[in-house]
Amino acid sequence: MLIAAKLLLKFPTPGETLGKETMNIQSLISLIYPPRCPVCFEILDDTKRKVHEKCEKKLIYVKPPVCLRCGKPVYSPLQEYCMDCSRSDAPIDGGTAVWVYTKEMAQSIAKYKYEGKKEYAGFYVDRAVRQCGEWICQRRPDCITAVPLNPRKQRMRGFNQALLIAQGIGKMLNIPVDNELLVRSRYTEPQKNLTPTQRLKNLQKAFGPGKNIRKYKSVLLVDDIYTTGSTAKICSSILKGAGVSYVWILNLCIGSDY
Ligand SMILES: [Zn+2]
Ligand SMILES: [Zn+2]
Predict the structure, then answer these.
(1) Does domain 53-254 have CATH number 3.40.50?
(2) Whose atoms come closest to the Cα of 46: which ligand?
(3) What is the pLDDT of residues 122-134, one digit of tens each?
(4) Ligand 1 centre and the CA of 40: distance in Å?
(5) Which one, 51, 94, 103, 163, has the greatest CB density within 10 A?
(6) DSSP strand E in 22-170: where?
(7) pTM score of the predicted model
(8) Domain boundaries, the chain
(9) Neighbours of 157 (CB within 10 A)
(10) For 143-178, what is the HEC assignment?
(11) Cα dist. 190→146, 153, 194 in Å?
């Protein structure tokens, strides 16, 4: 706290310009709220790292073979599509994902979303670009958009977790981000108590076209978690229904077929 107090003394007085002092404010913030590991949630001693090395080793990065449609890891290279994609004809042109949805990532994303740990986005975006950047650039999307949250949830949470990721990726890859392609209007019932058919109906009613939907031909849709893919399928149908020719999807975490 002594160092924090010393830094506090260097705070600019009214009328003084912000320069070097801005650095001090940041140092002070990181002293009071030291960056934490997005996997074990302990303090990161090496502030240049976004995650502990040993913690990152616990995460499973998606690697081939993957489903040609959604990017979910599949058991064999002979398998073109995952179980879900082979059962239904989703209007998605291709997908990629960063991590397999394991317990570690589930906990990390839950803290990010529900406890407002927005700072984890830095780690997620960095690894998403490292893992999927080339794939994204090869698809040449005109813009990146995120699965919208319903307004009530967004108000409660204070941010849209998928949009923050989309913005980070867009900035790093120099691709515009437009979040007015889709809207989420109704408050949907919690999905977990519903049967698969009820879930789909519930979700279908929740999404609609946004005012900029007709502006683009090729769109990358970003979300945090992909399990059965019903959200991605509905969003993609709306985009394609409005004239988007190609819909690509990127998810931070995805289930696996094995
Ligand atoms: Zn850790
Ligand atoms: Zn699939």
Answers:
(1) yes
(2) 1
(3) 999 999 999 999 9
(4) 4
(5) 51
(6) 94-100, 143-146
(7) 0.86
(8) 2-32, 53-254
(9) 14
(10) EEEECCCCHHHHHHHCCCHHHHHHHHHHHHHCCCEC
(11) 20, 12, 8
